[in-house]
Every structure is written in C-alpha cells, then in structure tokens.
Design a protein that fits this description.
single chain; 330 residues; alpha/beta; ornithine cyclodeaminase, domain 1; 25% strand
C-alpha cells in the first residue's frame, strides 16, 4: 500500500462540492447520534513567534463509511510580512480506521475552505427559504469563494452582493463569478438584505445590525473562530432563530461567544444544534420563522468527512502522488 500526497490543487480538484456537502451532513448526523469521536482542539502557544499550532483529531462512522484523521493547523500572524507565507496553513493526515494505515497526507488549508462552505450549505438547506435566489457575502477573502460555490449547490442563487473594505478583493471575487451569477459590489446592508447571507470576517465589533437583514434572511456566521470575535449585533442574535454546530465551541469562540459570556444571550436563546436538525429531532425552518442564524466554528468531523471525499475520488481517478511513506512497498 502507498500513501497519497495531495497538494492544494489536488484537494480542489477532488473535493467534489456536492459530495463534500453530503459527507459533512453525514458527519453532523454521526456526531448527533453518538457515532463520532472528536476530542477537544488542542493548542501549542508560541508567543515568541506570534503564533500557535492547533491539532484537530476526529473519527466518525457514517454507516456506509467510516473515517479518521487529524488536521494540524497554525496561525502565525507575522508569516506574510516576514516569510512570504500564509498566516494559516493546515495539513491533514487521513487514516484507515481498521488498521491505521496513513491513506493520504493532504493540504488542509484548501480542505478547510471546502468543508466550511459545505457546512454553510447544509445549514442553508435546512434554514433558508426554499425559493432563496439572492446571496450576500460580507468579507471577500478566500473563504467567501467556497461559501458561494457550496450554497449555489443547494439553492438557485442568481444574484450575489459582495461587501468588503478592500476593493481589490471585491474586484477579484466579481471577476471569478461574473460568468455564473449576477454579482456586484454593495454595502453591508445591501448584502445583508439578501435571502442568504454569509459573513466571513475577523471583526470584534459587530458590523451587521438587526435593521440590515431581510425579514426572512438566513445568516451563516462563519467568521468568528476565536474568543472576542463578533460579527452580528446582539439585537440581531436575540431576535433570530439561532442554530449552532457545537455548544462548547460556539459559546467559547463562535459568533455567540461575546453575548454569551456577558449574559446577554443564554442557552434559552439557542434553538439547537445543526445535527439535531439534520437528524430530524427538531425542525429546520418553519412557516413562522423570520431571521435564522447558523453559528459555525468548524468541527474536526467536517475535516475528516471532506478528506474522505477527497481521498476516495482521488484514489478512484488515479490523482495525487502515491509514495511509500512506511517503506512497505515490495
């Protein structure tokens, strides 16, 4: 047996978005039904380098398939200026659960973008209005691209409004998608008024107010991934139907972490977890719902699910670079 080495382009090519969405949905089901193991994310802090490492292991049994892996990811804020490297880099080790053989080592940065978009798509499928045709995106960085790609898989998106302080980012985003959608630059409130809104910014002072969103807008709050980050105003959250991916992670570092910590928002204000909705234990959008919010922190089970799709597709199509990592080849 050989291990597949899959770089960023390979992950992009083999992460078929419809399959990733289905796999992430399966992962939410496995987690909700107790068929997954996901130890807490562990950190190695390196203040002398203005950075840290994080490890995210998981195993899940989705019935027809099971998978295991660990993502090793960093955040080094000085990388772009000092080394010409990305601030965030990730590596995924994907293993065969039955015998622990390392099936693949793949770029975890591209994988993260794919699974993050897929998670938003799963939530949108259950929480957005059925006839949603417009999408707003606040923050035109790399995560914005897979938000649109994934959500367009499950809703007939026609119009896209993108808002970012960096005009160059907005221009590049528009150029990428203008052949597929009617896409234009807009203000925060114009983006927020769309049927579906994804926020993908690192802000700590809320930029989306309750008055900005449409009467039935579904919001994917994707930007908050650390304590103190906060994109949506408290009034918006308190008026919305809030769905989270994981209680511990969301209350510590998700969109709700700031109002939860100061007592403005409590458990009574959280409708439920996305796994409960996907399994049918609680309802998704109902006729009485107005604004809905999905607070996504990103779970290791999503990485493993996406890695499963990438590996299986690459293996079936002879993609990637096989090599004898363990020196077992004859």
């Amino acid at each position: 047996m050989e291990t597949l080495l899959l770089n960023s382009a390979d992950v992009d090519e083999n992460a078929q978005m419809d399959r990733v969405i289905a796999a992430v949905s399966d992962a939410f089901v496995a987690y909700e039904e107790g068929n997954a193991q996901m130890p807490a994310k562990s950190y190695i802090d390196l203040p002398e380098y203005d950075g840290d490492f994080r490890s995210m292991p998981a195993y899940l049994d989705a019935g027809d398939w099971d998978a295991a892996g660990v993502k090793w990811v960093n955040v080094h804020t000085n990388n772009p200026e000092e080394f010409g490297l990305p601030t965030v880099m990730g590596t995924m080790v994907y293993s065969e659960p039955e015998n622990a053989f390392p099936l693949a080592i793949m770029d975890g940065t591209e994988l993260t973008m794919k699974r993050t978009g897929a998670a938003a798509a799963v939530a949108t499928d259950h929480l957005a209005v059925e006839d949603a045709s417009s999408m707003g995106i606040i923050g035109a960085g790399v995560q914005a691209y897979t938000q649109l790609e994934a959500i367009a898989e499950i809703r007939d998106i026609e119009t896209v409004v993108v808002s970012d302080l960096d005009e160059g980012r907005v221009r590049r985003f528009i150029e990428t998608f203008e052949d597929r959608f009617t896409v234009r630059a807009g203000s925060v409130d114009e983006a927020a008024a769309c049927d579906v809104l994804s926020t993908v910014t690192p802000v700590e002072d809320p930029i989306v107010q309750a008055a900005d969103v449409g009467e039935h807008t579904h919001v994917n709050a994707m930007g908050a991934d650390a304590e103190g980050k906060h994109e949506l105003a408290d009034e918006l959250l308190l008026d919305a139907k809030i769905v989270i991916d994981d209680h511990e992670q969301c209350t510590h570092s998700g969109e709700i972490n700031v109002p939860y910590a100061d007592g403005t928002l409590t458990d009574d204000d959280i409708y439920g977890e996305i796994g409960q909705i996907v399994t049918g234990k609680i309802a998704g959008r109902t006729a009485d719902d107005g604004v809905t919010v999905f607070d996504s922190t990103g779970l290791a089970i999503q990485d493993v699910a996406a890695a499963h799709v990438v590996y299986e597709y690459a293996d079936d199509n002879d993609n990637g670079y096989p090599f004898d990592l363990l020196g077992l080849a004859e």
